[in-house]
Amino acid sequence: MPAGDGQEGAAFSPQFDPTPAENGELSDEILKNGGRKHYEREDSIVTVLKAGVLYFVLVFGAGFVLGPVRILWAVPFFGARMAELMETPIMLVIMIASARWLVRRLAVPSTTSSRLGMGCVALGLLLVAEFTIVLWLRGMSVSEYFASRDPVSGTVYYATLIVFAAMPLIGDRGKGTGRAD
């Protein structure tokens, strides 16, 4: 049965089918059950992707600026482990602020899947950047990178990556339905 005849196909079709009903107009059932939900879902996915990319850009950009400061200033005075551990709270504040601002600004839906989707998109981009740009700048292979990680600061870094992915969910619980400027 065609989805546009107002029968069972329209109720189960997740997409908007503009085929006219038998009386020459769009079925109210098609508009209510198919069209609007489809476009809202597309908007939601685009919002999550955009928020994830911007979250990555903000946090990676801050880390990209803090990295040379850590390496050139903090490492000579405090050592690599301590310098990385000192940078972690700064990055956590940046993650919290970025996630909260983007969730509110872009009105990311307050569902768990949307918020974790935003975090996972950002984490995926961060890992790609880490294993390409950063390793290229340092002239290291992936195995050399893991072998060079300090056991203490490396563990904190890996835990911070998990927090980074989860921050849109835990950093602004229940918010994001409105738009704050």
Low-confidence stretches: 8-13, 20-24, 175-181
Q: How would the global form be characterised?
A: elongated
Question: Largest sheet, if any?
Answer: none
Radius of gyration: 23 Å
Helicity level, as a percent range? over 70%
Would you tell me the overall average pLDDT?
Answer: 82
Tell me the β content.
under 5%
Number of strands: 0
SSE string, helix = H, strand = E?
Answer: HHHHHH
The separation of the N and C termini measures 48 Å
Number of helices: 6
Structure class: mainly alpha
Protein architecture, described:
With 181 residues, this protein is mostly helical. The protein has a domain at 45-170. The protein is built from six helices and no strands. 19% of the residues are buried. Mean pLDDT is 82; it is low at 8-13, 20-24 and 175-181.
Q: What's this model, at a glance?
A:
The chain has 181 residues and is mostly helical.
Question: Helix and strand layout, with pairings?
Answer:
Blueprint: H1 8-12, H2 28-78, H3 80-105, H4 112-138, H5 142-148, H6 151-170
Helix pairs in contact: 2-3, 2-4, 3-6, 4-6
